[in-house]
Design goal:
By secondary structure, this protein is mostly helical. It has helices at residues 3-12, 15-28, 32-41, 44-49, 51-59, 63-87, 94-102, 104-139, 146-163, 168-191, 199-207, 210-219, 226-229, 240-269, 286-294, 297-331, 350-366, 369-401, 415-430, 433-457, 462-472, 477-489, 500-509, 516-526, 536-544, 546-549; strands at residues 497-498, 534-535.
Length: 550
């Protein structure tokens, strides 16, 4: 992707051109612009369209300051992650970093916690669009059950994930760009209104109590989840040592400016406590109310429609990311084998996707939108705390192991990390029981899962792989021909690919005497691009010639 060309298309509003640029990038590898857009697409939905109303209910019109402080607390974790990602640009992101730093026990806790956190944020987006959908249906005088629509949307995005739609980002990009251009143009219009009072948001921040500011900051923390998510696609990023750290920091800066500026203008343009409904409940469609007040209902309905699409696309990406944590943990023998086996036809991890979708449905049906946000924020704060500590561990252990070579080094180390840890613990405390509950549940479930399953199955995967290379190399012509026939016979999808179950069947047929867990380790070492399948011809050619090349 040509950055100058794509930026020019963005300025001109050439949505089709931007989508085409991203399509080409995604098919090969993700460049800096592509990664930034993915990160922003996963943040601005619920972070901009739902959270401002609940934050205002906590601290009034000064919510821009809550978003700013939340970003300040996110910054140390983001910088720490930028450093680590430049040294370990691996698919799985935060889960991989924490598993390598703290071992499989913490890896299980972090993997399940990240899965649950993204699951809840995706459910939060589908719950949050209900208020906007109600506004649209009311305008067109259509009666709809918003919960039913949310569940249908969940079924749709679950199916799309299973099918492995490669153009998902092409759908997300124009939605994101059009929505952001529309909202920014409306905000620019609000700047010139005679009724706009720029002192109101500032005074609101100054008058709010410290406790209210901290509570609101902790609540909107989930709005920055995309900073965590972006490293999960490290294996798809071009020049990851440069682009991953840059995308993390650039997307954080853009999101912070977007949140702070837009919420400041919203509160300046509309007087009174407009974020409350007539019955005293919090309005869950603050952008709709803002646009309806300063312009008219027709434009507000258009924005509401874009809000629904934006949050559905965000949930689509969230389900994709959260299901991959289960897949990655199964690859490391921390969860059952079935969760790492990809679909023969579509080559996607269908069971993690289905399980994640089902639990999202439970969250939609059982949890209020505010509680979902608090539970998701609680664990994400804990993850940022751990990321700051992980930099300490990698730098200290490097004196012994010498295998940590980041291309980006955290500035102000270790003061930046100390600030992140202390501020994170305070926000976790100020959130109250639901925030602590989100982190506590992840620790308890992760610990139980590890001792019940992971500890029994996790192995040193290097030794069996080395043994396999010795046994597999230098075959006779007859042995080679037999292996080719057996491997292709096991290929049920006839794509010259084997998933783990097919690979295991082929290896057992060839009488390779490895345990199930050892075979999983061999498979994962061979699966270089971590897509859940191995190419048959490439696998045989590479490992039969392994010893000859040494």
């Amino acid at each position: 992707m040509d950055l100058k060309s794509t930026t020019g298309k963005l300025i001109r509003g050439d949505i089709k051109g931007i989508a085409k640029d991203l399509s080409g990038t995604l098919e090969r590898s993700l460049g800096l612009v592509g990664v930034i857009i993915i990160s922003l697409a996963s943040m601005v939905g619920s972070g901009l369209f739902v959270l401002p109303g609940f934050a205002a209910a906590i601290m009034g019109p000064g919510i821009w300051f809550a978003y700013f402080l939340a970003a300040i607390v996110v910054l140390p974790g983001a910088i720490s992650k930028a450093e680590i990602s430049s040294a370990i640009p691996k698919t799985g992101g935060t889960y991989v970093y924490l598993e390598r730093a703290y071992g499989p026990w913490f890896g299980t806790i972090s993997g399940l916690g990240l899965w649950a956190s993204f699951l809840l944020k995706s459910a939060f987006a589908l719950i949050g669009f209900s208020a906007y959908l109600h506004a649209v249906s009311y305008f067109f005088e259509i009666s709809v059950n918003t919960t039913t629509v949310a569940l249908y949307a969940l079924v749709l995005i679950t199916g799309l994930n299973i099918l492995g739609v490669k153009k998902i980002k092409n759908i997300q990009t124009p939605i994101l760009v059009v929505t952001m251009i529309g909202v920014c143009l409306i905000a620019a219009y609000a700047l010139v209104l005679d009724t706009t009072d720029f002192g109101r948001p500032w005074q609101g921040a100054m008058d709010a109590s410290f406790t209210d500011i901290a509570s609101a900051s902790a609540f909107v923390f989930v709005a920055y989840a995309g900073v965590i998510k972006v490293t999960a696609i490290g294996g798809e990023v071009k020049q990851p040592q440069r682009n991953l750290p840059s995308s993390i920091l650039v997307s954080l800066v853009i999101a912070t400016l977007l949140y702070c500026v837009l919420t400041y203008i919203m509160m300046a343009a509309v007087p009174g406590e407009w974020w409350f409904n007539a019955d005293g409940s919090t309005n869950e469609a603050p952008i709709y109310v803002f646009v309806d007040t300063i312009l008219n209902n027709e434009i507000a309905v258009i924005i509401a429609t874009l809000a629904v699409l934006t949050m559905i696309s965000g949930a689509l990406a969230g389900l994709l990311a959260s299901s991959r944590f289960l897949f990655a943990m199964a690859r490391d023998n921390l969860l059952p084998t079935a969760l790492e086996n990809v679909n023969v036809k579509y080559e996607t991890p269908h069971w993690p996707i289905i399980i994640t979708g089902l639990l999202m449905a439970v969250a939609i049906l059982q949890l209020p939108v505010e509680d979902v946000a608090k539970l998701a924020s609680g664990f994400q704060i804990m993850v940022y705390i751990l990321m700051c500590g992980t930099v300490f561990i990698f730098r200290r252990s490097n004196k012994v192991h010498g295998n940590y070579h980041p291309t980006f080094n955290s500035p102000l180390y270790p003061l930046m990390q100390f600030w992140g840890i202390l501020a994170g613990f305070y926000l976790l405390y100020i959130m109250g029981s639901k925030g602590v509950l989100g982190a506590g549940i992840a620790i308890i479930i992760g610990t139980i899962t590890y001792f019940a399953y992971g500890k029994k199955h996790s192995i040193d995967r290097i030794t069996p792989f080395q043994t396999f290379r010795t046994l597999f190399a230098n075959p006779t012509p007859t042995e080679h021909e037999l292996r080719v026939k057996v491997f292709h016979a096991a290929d049920m999808g006839e794509k010259n690919h084997l998933n783990f179950q097919e690979f295991r069947h082929a290896m057992k047929t060839l009488n390779f005497d490895f345990t199930n867990d050892e075979l999983r380790g061999i498979f994962h070492f061979a699966d270089d691009d971590e897509d859940g399948v191995i190419d048959i011809d490439a696998f045989i050619n590479a490992y039969e010639a392994a010893l000859e090349e040494q």
